[in-house]
Amino acid sequence: MSSKDTLTIKKKRSAVAGNTIRINIHEWGGYPLKRSKKVNVIPEFECGLYYQLERFTKDDGLDKNVSVTISEITRHQHLEYIKSKVENVFSVSNDGMDFSGYNFFYESIKDLPNSYVILTNSSVNKIQTEFLKDYIKYMDDNLDVGILGVSYSSKKMQTLIRNNFTPHLQSFFLLTTTEVLKEIVEKNNGIFPGSTISHKLSLILKGEVKISEIAILLGYNLAVTLENKSIFKFGKNNWFDNGYKRWKLKEGDVRLTVKNPNIINEIII
């Protein structure tokens, strides 16, 4: 059997310390708590910080520490409501958009004991699902997975390369660990991917795509949850292997083909 036929385990994550899940929800100050989102030809869907706060602050028996980072915070009309729901609210630069928030949050937790970390924004579908316990169990059982996401694209969309194949997790929801983030930042010359980029299209390449690329380069596999409640794992076995032969999913941006874009999928494990 060729090495390209089966995804191998090249590296495993360090175990987390304790049960705390550290969650960062990033928001732009000009958004209302509830909104509709339409991105190009992706079907319109309802989202907003209100639904994220409901999702992550409910009592589900998990030890969650939730922080909200807000760029252009003076524009936000509901700060007191947000502060009543979470442990921390931070004002951050809007230069790197979501990645400015993710970077600030990373800097605030990087010296704490290794824990699970969720980086997400308010552009998550409002539909509420029961997912977090199963996501954590999956990560516990799959130490080769550096990052778990809920949506993917198989291509660099902002590129002149035709028919390119660069599978990556979309950055509106990423579950990883403090130690994996440390490795990614160190590999990126000490800079959190995307945090210094102000051009919106470049952010996809230098932030979203870069995070997945570095994680794979470090030797980790990636995983994405799907609307049929399954999980697909992908990565590279070696430098010359791009994983195309093992790719079983639809190509392009998955949000073009699913019933509910940007939803956090439930999984069966």
Low-confidence stretches: none
Strand content: 15-25%
Question: How much helix is in the residues?
Answer: 10-25%
* Cα shape: globular
Order of helices and strands: EEEHEHEHEHEEEEHHEE
Mean model confidence by pLDDT: 92
Number of strands: 12
Mind telling me the C-alpha Rg?
A: 18 Å
What structural class do helix, strand and pairing data support?
alpha/beta
Q: How far is the N terminus from the C terminus?
A: 27 Å
Strand order of the largest sheet: 5-4-1-6-10-7-11-12
Largest sheet entry: 8 strands, mixed
List keywords for this structure.
single chain, 269 residues, alpha/beta, eight-stranded mixed β-sheet, two-stranded antiparallel sheet, 6 helices, 25% helix
SSE arrangement:
Blueprint: E1 21-28, E2 35-39, E3 42-47, H1 49-57, E4 64-71, H2 79-85, E5 88-92, H3 98-109, E6 116-121, H4 132-141, E7 145-149, E8 152-153, E9 168-169, E10 173-177, H5 178-187, H6 200-217, E11 221-225, E12 231-234
Description:
- This protein is α/β, with parallel strands linked by helices and 269 residues long.
- Helix content is 25%, strand content 23%.
- Strands 5-4-1-6-10-7-11-12 form an 8-stranded mixed β-sheet, sandwiched between helices. A two-stranded antiparallel sheet has the order 2-3.
- Strand 11 (221-225) and strand 12 (231-234) form a beta hairpin.
- The mean pLDDT is 92.
Quick rundown:
The protein is an alpha/beta fold and 269 residues long. It has helices at residues 49-57, 79-85, 98-109, 132-141, 178-187, 200-217, and strands at 21-28, 35-39, 42-47, 64-71, 88-92, 116-121, 145-149, 152-153, 168-169, 173-177, 221-225, 231-234. Helix content is 25%, strand content 23%.
